[in-house]
Amino acid sequence: MYKYIKRLIDIFASFLGLIILSPIFIVVFLLLLYFNNGKPFFFQARPGKNEKIFKIIKFKTMNDKTDENGELLSVDKRITKVGSFLRKSSFDEIPQLINVFKGDMSLIGPRPLLIKYLPLYNDFQKRRHEIKPGITGWAQVNGRNAISWDEKFKFDVYYVDNASLLLDIKILFLTVKKVLVKEGVNSSENLNMKEFRGSLKS
């Protein structure tokens, strides 16, 4: 029953959020339009519910500089000063409200990770795709990049099994708190987190 209420909340909250945050959205859009050579947005394919692929939308926080072989430089070498601020403030996540409004994502749920991780999940870890991914989630308010992959997946599956209005309210409250005090929040879900290489546990 809650999943239907949750979708209505997502539609209303994402629409309201886009309106309230529109001044910030416009300012950031214009800044990145100038500093990123006309490329304010970052699009990347990610797996959603039931591993259905969608394109996540974020503000672009990195340049496209490459090495002598034409390969992109590492993330920490490509992040811009504006991008670093956006990540620390979490403003880079604002465009994902569009994903929520469209139905690709929810406000609350397991963070959508990289497609290349899909073949590496064991049966337990795959359960994170039983629901829509979220802008924030139970793992994010319990350590984000400070916890191991195994712990992150345990928090994700816990949310899958225990999603409720009260839990979502708690996650939203803790998310706001962590963003405001920058508690346990790194500048990116991928910047300071080791790449997932699979688990032997089933």
- Across the major sheet, the strand order is 1-2
- What integer value in Å does the Rg equal? 17 Å
Helix-strand sequence: HHEEHHHEHEHH
Overall pLDDT score = 89
Q: What structural class do you assign from the helix and strand content? A: mainly alpha
Give unreliable regions as ranges.
Answer: none
Strand content: 5-15%
Report the end-to-end length measured between terminal Cα atoms: 30 Å
Please give the largest β-sheet: 2 strands, antiparallel
The global form is globular
| DSSP summary, beta strand count | 4
Helix content: 40-55%
Task: Supply the number of helical segments.
Answer: 8
Characterization of the model:
- By secondary structure, the chain is mostly helical.
- Helices cover 44% and strands 10% of the residues.
- It contains eight helices and four strands.
How would you concisely characterize the structure shown here?
It contains 8 helices and 4 strands; from the N terminus they run H-H-E-E-H-H-H-E-H-E-H-H. The chain has helices at 2-20, 22-35, 75-78, 81-89, 96-102, 123-126, 149-162, 165-181; strands spanning 41-47, 53-59, 106-108, 134-136.
